[in-house]
Amino acid sequence: MDTKETVLSILQDLTGTDVSDAMDDNLFDSGLLDSMGTVQLLLQLQGQLGIDVPVSEFERTEWDTPNKIIAKAESMK
């Protein structure tokens, strides 16, 4: 599975929603992600992709859409 597929799978598990057809939708504004979901997302990214993002360094505007999450994850690999 590549980074995009992994991120989309994680997001589907966390939100219960297939976000692959809404790649530029803001996950926070839509209510799909909240602070607890953010922590779970970061833990899953670390576990599945080996990406370590401390919560203290998490900038919500850089991670608010599926496309941004994928791009950020790819840049940190």
How is this structure best described in words?
With 77 residues, the protein is mainly α. It has a single domain, classed as Non-ribosomal Peptide Synthetase Peptidyl Carrier Protein, Chain A (Orthogonal Bundle), CATH 1.10.1200. Helix content is 51%, strand content 0%. The chain has helices at residues 3-15, 35-49, 66-76. Helix 1 runs antiparallel to helix 2 and helix 1 packs across helix 3. The longest helix is centred in the middle third of the chain and has 15 residues, at 35-49. It is globular, with a radius of gyration of 11 Å. The chain starts with a helix and ends with a helix.
- Encode the helix/strand succession as letters: HHH
Strand content: under 5%
Task: Give the end-to-end Cα distance, rounded to a whole number of Å.
Answer: 14 Å
Sum up the overall morphology in one term: globular
In angstroms, what is the radius of gyration?
Answer: 11 Å
- How much helix is in the residues? 40-55%
CATH architecture: Orthogonal Bundle
Structural class: mainly alpha
Topology, number of strands: 0
The tally of structural domains comes to 1
The name of the CATH superfamily reads: ACP-like
Query: In CATH terms, what is the fold-level topology?
Result: Non-ribosomal Peptide Synthetase Peptidyl Carrier Protein, Chain A
**CATH class group:** Mainly Alpha
Mean pLDDT: 94
Q: Uncertain regions: pLDDT < 50 for 5+ in a row?
A: none
Sheet with most strands:
none
Domain Carrier: 1-77
InterPro entries: ACP-like_sf, DltC, PP-bd_ACP
Pathway: Cell wall biogenesis; lipoteichoic acid biosynthesis
Pfam family, one: PP-binding
